[in-house]
Amino acid sequence: MKITNFATRLLAGSAMAALLSVPAYAQSTEEQKAQVANTPEETNEGVIIVTATKRASTVQDVPFSINAQTEEDIQRANASTMEDLSRDIAGLSIQNLGPGQSQVSVRGVSAGQVIRDQPGVKEQVGVYLDESVISLSLFTPDFDLFDLNRVETLRGPQGTLFGSGSVGGTLRYITNQPRTDRMEGTIEGNINMVEESDVGGHLKAAINVPLSDTLAVRAVGYFQQFAGFIDSVGPFNKENVNDGSRVGGRLSLLFEPSPNVRITPRIVYQELKTNGFNRQEFFNLYSNEFTTPSYTYGEREQYLLVEEGFDDETLLADLTASFQFGGVELTSISSFMDRDIVVSRDASALTGSISVDFGFSDDVVNLPSNLVDTTDLKSFTQEVRLASTGAGPLQWVVGAFHSEVDRDYGQFLPTPGYADVIDAAGAPGDAEAAAGPFDPDSPYNSVVPFDIRQDAIFGEASYEFGKLTATAGLRYFDFKESRSLLFQGFFTGLSVLEQETSSDGFNPRFLLSYEATPNLNINAQVSKGFRLGGVNDPLNEPLCTDDDIAIFKPFAGSYEDESLWNYEAGVKYSRGNVTFNSAAFYTDIKNLQTTIDAGSCSSRIVFNAEKAHTMGVEAEFSVSPADGLDLSLSGSLVEAEFDTSLPGDLPSITGIRDGNRLPSVPKFQMAASAYYQQPLSSRADWFVSASVQHVGSRYTQPADQERNPRDFPHELMFNGMDGTEVTTVDLELPSYELVNLSAGVKLYNGLDVSLYVNNLLDENALMSFDRERGGRARLGYNIGQPRTIGLTVRKQF
Which CATH number do you get for residue 291? Predict the structure, then answer.
């Protein structure tokens, strides 16, 4: 077994850094509690402090369903992405579409697979880094989880306090904040092997330095190498093509000139790169079971003519300032984000299938083609709020929010030699004429700049009537989106459009919380959530069949705002070493924005499904039955269905049929874990942990449950195929289970060493179904990570 020079240097460097670190000392519970208002965290008693209501509170006191995964939980799970954590959180589902391209849903509120070429679609779950909005539909930044205090999952609509992107819920990454009372830090090194072939690892460090009694700085830096596990066959023949890296850091400064003033400027930078995607194919135009010679794909294989890649560079600068005076606190959050995203895919099979339809020769069909998507995003948000700080029965918060988003999206299809092909086919000059200002060798080009503005005013107040607390909130929003659209090329013709959409409205929330006993709270909530609408891109009509134009063109205009009412009731019980939280919910959805693959057009459009609902129950239970032993169990049971059908034959084409399931949502999801720690000597403890995660079956798009198993006729006369070939696929993604184990030692000087195995049984989990041009070009799956064996060394001081 060969270990790369990178892996050797990484392990040696992390071990040396850990041995040279200064000794650790413990922080007292009193020190932690003293910082709750500004640095919420888990105290030594196990009480988790969160800020889900824009004020510090315990998880048990928050009057709605919430999960908080602490820094210790993240470390125990050996998690480096949110997807790693999601399976342990009841009601949270993440659809993996590749690094930096995952979709998040909460409680089954899901509209289907959003692809990189749908920049106008809004997110259904709001994602925040501390107080800064980082949500971006498909491209929400996949930030590293190192030096996080916790990750909060707020279930149900959070529009009152967190805005339009939180129709299903809100996800919050809460970082450790600078502090003036002590110096502390962590350094962590890891080496891991995936599928017993490729090696990855990381080196991460964080340090907090008090500069004076009023000034402190916290710096975080990390580098991670992702091991690949997908092998490419074909002209671009390479193993582990989906390897990559993530590098980044955070620099925060705290200025606290008085106990009532706290100012924290921060800069966050991250660049995520991969050299390919986690796609496992079983049909490709160029090589499949019907071609000559035939080929049957194995697990974790794909066919490539050109190299693929993903590059996401993110810069976030924010400033949070709070001022306390006269029993109230004024908070201002200013945030600026600059992102550059490039997605490069092998579109040879897509372009080749079109060339077959156009009757071009095999030499033309075999031309390498590269689809390049670019996103240049600049966003600014400003929030100002005023909140009560006293201990009286009345608590309140009011605020205003403003955001400006400029998003320039482009998509291009460079295919060297294609202009000559078009000329040789008997239409000299057509390529140049069709391309206009673009490269004639690119038969498809689109440029779509967006200008999005949003203003909102919000407020929420609660009052204690003895053991009963009532809360009411309201948010008013005003939104406007405008975009210019230029589509030009041989595949699309010419489309030049100026489009605009706008919306405004109110979203209320009402909550009741009753303290039945000192250990038991009962809560109920009624809340409204919303997601802003938009405008579909035009169909690529030159690529469409006549039937597809007739079916989809009438729906290729604008789509309406999505809204829902959420009704829930829950209990929260905590006594000694036992905690049990559970909630039952029902959501009534109106105008659900549902993404549909427009058949042969290589286009996707959004339909409004008039009515849908989700209902279910979620529960989380933890207990420590013996000294050093922690057990936990969480799970959710969700029914998510359409309550309406589109007219005529559209239900069988789109899947929007009364009783059909909403996409990407498992009916049942469960996780169980056990952690045991005991003294090894007078200077060290040993520990062992195990977890089992189950994710139920799902569908990638609503239409996948119609006529399933589905026949995909390829209709291509190429490379031995006569046009009659059909591939039959069961589009229900099967359930899967992941078993994770770890063991290690913790020295009392702050040094931890752990050995772990994730996905012990090497489950090949199918995360989503991937189809290109309705199956004429390519069929496959996006898959999860294989068995991973790793070693982590961590030193805290």
Answer: 2.40.170.20
